[in-house]
Every structure is written in C-alpha cells, then in structure tokens.
Amino acid sequence: MAGALLLLLPFLFPSLFTPFSHALPSVFSEWNAPKPRHSRLLKSALQRQTPDEQLADLWRPLAEQQWKRCARSDSMSSLPEKSQGYIQVFLDGGLNQQRMGICDAVAVAKILNATLIIPHLEVNPVWQDSSTFMDIFDVDHFINVLKDDISIVRELPDEYFWSTREYYATAIRATRIKTAPVHASANWYIENVSPVLQSYGIAAIAPFSHRLAFDNMPEDIQRLRCKVNFQALVFVPHIRALGDALVTRLRYPPSTSEVDGTSYLRQVSDSKDKQGTGKFVVLHLRFDKDMAAHSACDFGGGKAEKLALAKYRQVIWQGRVLNSQFTDEELRSRGRCPLTPEEIGLLLAALGFDNSTRLYLASHKVYGGEARISTLRSLFPLMEDKKSLASSEERAQIKGKASLLAAVDYYVSMHSDIFISASPGNMHNAVVGHRTYENKKTIRPSMTLLGQLFLNKNLTWPEFQDAVVEGHKNRQGQLRLRKPQQSIYTYPAPDCMCNS
C-alpha cells in the first residue's frame, strides 16, 4: 500500500512535483500521456465502415507496370588479372544507411580494380549497436553472388594487420582517405585513391556515407550496385527464419478456439469472410525520441515533453535543430513534421482500412511508449510487433541489437501485402526502392497534404476522408523513374530494371 501511495503522489499533488519535472523532464514526459490532438476525427474514425468494394481495391496487388525487375549483367564484366590492392570502408549510420554504403563500396572496388575487405560497421552512437557485417548479412552468399565481379576477402591479410579503425583514430595516416566529397565521381576515386593503392597496397576510406555519385556513372557500375542491393545482400539464416515465422503468424492467426499460454497469440473474431483475410500491412512508425527531437514540431505532450526534447537536443546536437526558425504551423503546412501514431492511424482509416486489418508495427522504441500508441491501437486492435508475435526465446538472438531488430522489420516489410512509412528516412527509402523493384504495393503519405489537413480543426470526417483518398490515388506504388541526383536505391528504374 505504501508503494502504491508513493506512485500516486505525483498525480494527487502535482504542484509538489513541479520542480522535479523541470529537473527530470525526460522521465516525467513519459508519464504524461498525450491526449488525442484530433479527437473529432478520431471519434468518427472509430465508427467507420468501409464498403467491400473499397476494401477489395485496397488489397488488390499492383498491376504489371512498364518497368520490371530483370537480371541484366555486363557480358564484358570480369575480374582483373591482378588486384591493385585492398579497399577498406568504415560505415556509420543505421542498418539501411550502412546497406547503401556496402553497395557503393563494391562499386568503388570495381572502379579501382581492387579487392574489397568486408566492410566495417561503426558502433551506432544513438542505438549503441556493435553488430558486424557477419552478424547481419550472409557473407558466403554475398561473396558467391559477386565472385565474377570483384574479389572480396573476409579479413585483412596478415601483412596489413595494422590497418584497423583504432589505427586511423589516433593520428593522420597516409593510407586513410578522408577527403572523398559527397557524391564523388568515378574519376575522383581513380585520381585520388589509385595512387594510394599503388604506394601502400591498401586504402581505407572514412567517412564513406553517400560518397559515390548516382549520376554520370558507367552502366556496368550502376548494374553492379543494383546486383549488390537486390541480390547479394541477404540476411543471416536466423533473421530470415524469425521473419518467416512472423509473416506466417500474421497471415494465419489463431482462431478463437485456439488456446496458448504464450503472449504472441491474439484472438481474431468474425474475420473469415472479410476482405484482406490472410493479408497484412506493415507500418514503419518512425517516431523514436531521436526522430522527435530532430524536428522542431510540437507533438502534443505539453511542457514536460518540450523540456525533455530540448534537453535531448542539447546533449546530442548542442541544441541545433532542423527548421527551428519556423513555427509548428509553418512546419506542418510544409509537410516537415513526422506523423504521430494518432495521425498515421487516421490516415490508414481514411484510406479505408477497417478494424479487422492486421497491422505489423515495424519500429524501434516509440517515443512516449504505449501511451503514445494507444490511439493507433484503438483504431487497429489487431496490431502486432516482434514482441507480441514471438516468444522471448525466439527473440533472444536479436535482443538489444538495433541492427538485427531493424533487419527483421525489413524482412517482414518485404513480405507484406502493403507497406507504409509514417515519415521519410533511410528505412523508408530502402524498403520503398526494394518493393518498387519487386512491384509490390507501397503507400507513400503526402506529408504536405496531411500537415495542412491536420491544421484544419473544423474539418469533418467525410471531408478529411475524401481529401485523403483523392490525394493518395497515385501514391500506392506507381513506379517513378529516377531523376538526376536521386538515389538509385530508392528509385531503381531505369538503372536496375528493364522496360517491358
């Protein structure tokens, strides 16, 4: 009883705890459950009914498009008679940024006729994940698929044992290339890295994020990048096995008569004859603390949340915030605010997904926890994630490993009937590009339209729904050709695809 009374004190006598909430805003912001910001729309959404015809249209796969995946290869491609030396790269960022860096590293090795050492993945400063390339990707498959294109070795040869990350961190080294410009040309590498290879036999490139241009590249290099991304990079067997188990449980949930003591089974009632039975949507809910703090938007958590995010920004980025010169209204009207769980739920409801929709939540820890997700769960009660679908024993190998957790989400995302990302980012870009290559349905939220709609507090549900449906007619996986300077990994046509 004493413990329960202690927990209730902040709520019974909030004024006594005001000084502490100012001192520890990150703690108290998690306690203060944000109220729904669009309660009028939410009330109508909870009572929604979707016609069968609209549901059938939602779940219908994409029609065949003008461009399709193809196994194009350069018949002239072959390994050089002699390697010019060894290339090392050190990749930072999260899983999907590192994935793109791996593709570029293979391309650079090909440009230089060099042997690639399996890329080194830096410890992520936000997630503190030390997973290596071999922890995430199937190395044997990677080497085998690319064996006719470049030479790849797992580890440094003995004569270069000294060329480590620690070696380059202590002083300026002649073998380290740290001046590679963002989106450097093939010629830049030939002019600046080849001499180092000739002199020392090895070159280490760091930083290596976005260090190879997407434009004016030889066709064989572009095709090689596509081959790495869509064929060579396969997750390790235990990631694929867990992903397959989650997909099976999403497609074939237990009936109400089944009883099991584990946490991942959910009762599903009255769904046998509904449209979408056996299908599921993956929602990448990009709303972690890092994402929330990196914008200057207001997410409805009140003063405590604002203080917590301000404190976090100061620690991580010395107070620097993107678009901080704009007001919240200006940012929203320009589509620059991440969608909250409540807002993405309203979007899905307006598009026609009903409460029998099986929704898989692909996300790292959501800022605000279950309190922030509760509105989304009320709209989609059959919402699942890794924790609800798999036992703790099944998740043991990925526990606490942000990159492995992201890899499982990526795998499930690629096997879903529909994928939708709440906000643009590296995961969004990677999965959207991969699903475009596979011609799978992907809904891209119109951030500008939604920002403007959510600012209009007088909007009725029919008006909101009509605007959402009309604004997303051509944002459900229709192929878009890559424009200059755009990523080949997000827009794989025409570089990675064939015109049918």
Automatic annotation (TrEMBL):
Keyword Magnesium belongs to the record: no
Coiled coil region boundaries: none
Single GO cellular component term: membrane
Alphabetized UniProt keyword annotations: Carbohydrate metabolism, Fucose metabolism, Glycoprotein, Glycosyltransferase, Membrane, Signal, Transferase, Transmembrane, Transmembrane helix
Pathway it works in: Glycan metabolism
Tagged with keyword Membrane: yes
MF-aspect GO terms: glycosyltransferase activity
Localization per Swiss-Prot or TrEMBL: Membrane
GO BP of this protein: fucose metabolic process
Mode of membrane association: Single-pass membrane protein
N-terminal signal peptide: 1-23
Family per record: Belongs to the glycosyltransferase GT106 family.
Protein name: O-fucosyltransferase family protein
Organism: Sesamum alatum
